[in-house]
Specification:
Shape: globular
Strand order of the largest sheet: 1-2-3-4-5
Order of helices and strands: EHHHEEEHEH
CATH class: Alpha Beta
Number of domains: 1
Number of strands: 5
CATH topology: Aminopeptidase
Bound molecules: coenzyme A
Distance between the termini: 45 Å
CATH architecture: 3-Layer(aba) Sandwich
Low-confidence stretches: none
Mean pLDDT: 97
Structural class: alpha+beta
Largest sheet: 5 strands, mixed
Helix content: 25-40%
Length: 140
């Protein structure tokens, strides 16, 4: 049977559906976000893409961006029941296309363990040795 997936980027996903999708990753065990906090963070994004199967939210990705130079891809998530069907690739391509349209000079992201191969296939490269991305975690 032909799948009925579709993608949209003109409206925010439903808050509860988005939070349920977010919870499938396990990331909230460290972030400890309330549903409303997660939704506010998403609302403050520069661009976002949702993947749907009929009424179900099955994938999502978003970008923070300064509009000119740098973009950061965040929260790229495909529901575990829908992974390995090209949905993550489609969302990522849409995020990258949006940056290309705006001539954003570079796109950054942090890969979780085991997903670096996915991003490498999509053209992303690790930073040069000795020039790592760095972070400090607050309020853990
Ligand atoms: C990472 C994730 C978004 C990938 O989405 P997906 O829909 O399952 O991936 P796709 O089916 O679009 O895969 C696209 C290509 O990448 C490959 N790929 C997928 N996961 C991979 C992995 N972990 N390592 C290497 N290659 C991978 C696929 O085989 C496919 O290759 P092809 O184009 O040659 O056929 C998805 O696994 C996910 O949501 N995981 C949980 C949340 C997460 O970890 N997000 C990433 C945060 S950094």
């Amino acid at each position: 049977m032909k799948n009925t997936f579709y993608f949209k980027d003109t409206e925010l996903p439903d808050e509860s559906k988005l939070f349920s999708l977010f919870l499938t990753t396990g990331w909230n065990e460290s972030y400890k976000l309330e549903k409303s906090e997660m939704f506010t963070a998403v609302k403050n994004s520069w661009y976002y893409v949702s993947a749907c199967d009929k009424e179900k939210l099955i994938g999502f990705g978003r970008i923070l961006c300064d509009g000119i130079v740098h973009a950061l891809i965040l929260d790229l998530i495909v529901h575990p029941d829908y992974q390995n069907q090209g949905i993550g690739k489609t969302i990522l391509n849409k995020l990258v296309d949006k940056c290309r349209q705006h001539r954003i000079r570079d796109i950054q992201l942090y890969s979780v363990k085991g997903k670096d191969g996915f991003y490498r296939k999509m053209g992303f490269k690790e930073r040069p040795e000795g020039e790592p991305g760095m972070e400090i975690k607050l309020f853990q």
